[in-house]
Design brief:
six-stranded mixed sheet; 9 strands; Hypothetical Protein Aq_1857, Chain: A; mainly beta
Length: 121
Amino acid sequence: MTITLTEAANFRVKEMIREEKGENLFLRVGVGGGGCSGLTYGMGFDDRVVDGDQVFEQDGLKVVVDKNSAPLLNGVTIDFKQNLEGGGFTIDNPNAISTCGCGHSFKTAANEGEPSKQCDC
């Protein structure tokens, strides 16, 4: 399984971890149900690895993905873009066959997930 963080994303995540003052924190990336398309991305900090997690390191940043999310995130590229309104992470997922307008949810050929009754876009 591979997930790629661009240099900008890697830098921003490390910066955020320093701001949290969490020496043992790492980036956890996952997928849950919901959103307009059925599956939503989740990213956050964690300090515990559980059985089945896939762990890898990229340029000094530890990244963890749970076993259920791994097939849906294989090949994903995470970027961080800065603009006049601030900044945010973007996810390019080659497994997605459709995404919602804002890019926060998606579905794959193998997993359509459970769309929310109300779209968050």
